[in-house]
UniProtKB/TrEMBL annotation:
The keyword Chaperone does not apply. This is Glycoside hydrolase family 5 protein. Keywords: Glycosidase, Hydrolase, Signal. InterPro entries: GH, Glyco_hydro_5. Belongs to the glycosyl hydrolase 5 (cellulase A) family. Residues 1-21 form the signal peptide.
Length: 324
């Protein structure tokens, strides 16, 4: 009898180890939207947590490489990353489409090898003015990554002074391009006012397509991003709008400003309570509150504590605790 109990305990430990040793994609499989929630192949909200790269055309560009992706997966324990491809101004996709696409592909391909999820982010504030370019880009991405469970398409980062009709009309032009090739991977649609007016989107959501989610952004220490903004998201969630926090920072909306620990922890608790997946802004060594890296941090990863900013140290600790 004792031997049977011992064997059972050993099997239980071995099973637990094998599950924990699996990559996030191996554990969760293909994502989908069910009953207003982003869920995994088992119908459970996976609550992915990770890091957003910075604009691919400025200071953060040098970190768009496989070494950084591997480090984020292995050391930070990120289960999702966001490849933020700058569309404009100078040096972005509109001017250098092949160079920008190559940066994104290098990050996405390594995320697939590392077994983590990756948002392909059309990082543009004026996507409605660049419909043909967006169509061409997402056509290429959907053809290349069709059916690969790691990949999520984010088709418009932060619409600015744009109404929901404009955002929705744009989405209804891009979604069919992706769905021609990739029938079921998650597509993330933006919402007005820098991805804050999700309650407006919830009142008139996109219909006729499955596995559509909506981005929600906040900056945890910003005085304008507190209870009233959470109430907007709470309303959208109550209306069964599937949300994913594709961008948030510990500072203020400018990317700089205060890092208020109490406000940041309140926002993190809210994401945990609502089982929302997120990526934190951002991998760059720019001198800003939300930058995770100190100046001249190694461009291939391998960062020590001295290479991380207060935001970087905090987010690494959060990811290693919550994603363990």
């Amino acid at each position: 009898m004792r031997m049977k109990i011992l064997i059972a305990l050993l099997l239980s430990v071995a099973f637990s180890w094998s599950v924990s040793a699996q990559t996030p994609v191996a554990q969760n499989g293909k994502l989908k939207v069910e009953n207003g929630k982003l869920v995994n192949e088992h119908g459970v909200a996976p609550q992915l947590r990770g890091i957003s790269f910075s604009w691919s055309l400025w200071q953060g560009r040098k970190y768009f490489n496989p070494g950084v992706v591997s480090w984020l997966a292995d050391d930070f324990k990120a289960s999702i990353i966001r490849a933020a491809m700058g569309v404009q101004p100078d040096g972005g996709y509109l001017q250098q489409p092949e160079e920008q696409k190559d940066l994104i592909v290098s990050v996405v391909d390594q995320a697939i090898r590392s077994g983590i999820y990756v948002l392909i982010d059309w990082h543009d504030h004026n996507s409605n003015l660049h419909v043909s370019e967006s169509k061409d880009f997402f056509r290429q991405m959907a053809k290349k990554y069709v059916g690969i469970p790691n990949v999520i398409y984010e088709i418009w980062n932060e619409p600015e002074k744009t109404d929901w009709k404009t955002v929705k009309d744009y989405a209804l032009q891009i979604i069919p391009v992706i769905r021609k090739y990739d029938k079921s991977n998650i597509i993330v649609v933006g919402s007005p006012h820098w991805d804050q007016d999700v309650d407006i989107a919830a009142a008139d959501p996109i219909k006729g397509y499955s596995n559509i989610a909506y981005s929600f952004h906040f900056y945890a220490s910003d005085p304008y991003h507190q209870d009233a903004l959470r109430a907007k998201a709470d309303k959208a969630i109550a209306m069964k709008l599937p949300l994913i926090v594709t961008e948030w920072g510990v500072g203020e909306a400018s990317g700089d400003g205060e890092f208020n620990l109490q406000k940041t922890q309140a926002w993190l608790k809210w994401t945990e309570d609502n089982k929302l997946s997120w990526t934190n802004w951002n991998i760059t060594d720019k001198h800003e509150t939300t930058a995770l890296l100190q100046n001249n941090a190694p461009i291939q990863g391998g960062w020590t504590k001295a290479n991380l900013t207060p935001a970087g140290i905090f987010i690494r600790n959060v990811l290693r605790e919550l994603n363990k």
